[in-house]
Amino acid sequence: MKDKSEQVVGLAQIFVSADPCVLSCPSIGSSVALLGFDPKAGVVGLAHALLPVVRSRQASAFGKYVETAVPELLNRMTALGAEKDSTSLVLVGGAVSTQWGNTKSAGGQQLGERNVAKALAMLEELGGERLKATDVGGNMGRTLTFDTATGEVRVQTTGKGSKVVCRFAIAARSGACRQA
Amino acid sequence: MPASIITIDDILKKTADLPSVPAAALKVMQESESPNGTAANVASHLSQDQSLSARILRLANSPYYGLSKQVVSLQESVVLLGMRSVRNLAMVAATYPWMVRPLKGYALGPKEMWTHSFGVAIGSQLVAQKAKLAHHETVFLAGLLHDLGKVALSIWLEGKIAAMINLAARDNLTFDQAEQRVLGYDHTEVGEHLARLWNLPDSLVAPIRFHHWPNAMETPDLTVDCVHIGDYLTMTMGFGLGGDGLNYAFHPETLDRLHLSLDDLDDISDIFVTRYEACEALFTELAAA
User: Which residues pair with A49 in a beta bridge?
Assistant: First the structure.
């Protein structure tokens, strides 16, 4: 049963909060989920992007593209009081098909690889925040969960069970999840 | 060497709750595929199933179609929506009850099979529209039914999923190849047998059988190609991913045959989420009613 304070972040969405939360990001296929957390400020953010580069300039679509979702996530976290020096990030997703043909029309990288590469390039470009952990690639779907009360980032891989990919050191907090 | 002692015939005979489709929906499908099919006959078949009839009328009067006047008769709704749209809705309503069940054999929770199948229906249709194929309504239905075999096969794979995943990883097999190794056949073959049991037309049997290996067909089939790409796109979007994950082969020759590029796939993915959410909400409400 879901915790009452659990916030589900769907495809193409960005969520940020300065309140204690349990975040869940299900159905991560070739898409990427970027989790940001500043334990000092108690600010958390999560973006779930589908495509590497912008194809529509509508502000409502910012969360769909890695290119716009990454800066938007960090800007919204900063607006809530997060600081670059104390913010760490976790990148999850970017699954690919096992066999990928190599004819002229499809010689490029798979979507999952392009999403991960773009996310890493954006983080490099923006600078400052530390990438604390990654769980990317492979050919399985994932669900990411994060509890600000425990600082535990967990990834469930379909058919394979779940694992803790990293743990933030935090002071104990509790309360309801509220989007800023 | 296949380890299975269960044959496909056994599966079709012994599986409790084998998926089925109401007779009225199958008759609507046959009528819509017939060169002599008429709206009057489709309406007549629909009228044999009151529940289905009510849903068609509700769909015809929904904001999705934006018709300027209220539709009160079945025949009128078939004329206004088109025989193939009505057929698709009939099949969505007919398959929904068993597609929302969990499939433990594939590590799919409640509604995940439906999410994947409906996603492939939408995705395949978007591919067909991008390629400017005229028969995109049929492609939708082919996408909806493509994994029919998993529904029948799932119960026979319960408790085996971890071993299947490990076998595939160890021997560098796609998931359907792992099924072949363990059972001697895969979910596409089970689906083909079930589809023939229902007397589905060849245009729908072929995508069920060849959606993972479209190049294995003697004569390439553009509907199969659309479903192959629609399936790939739906997997990349994480819709209804089970223990088989994205562990399948992608065949780029399908793009060549449809005159599409990888960039076109990103275009389709870009509108996929919005289209899926709009259609899924509407069809779920009608199918679950």
Answer: A32
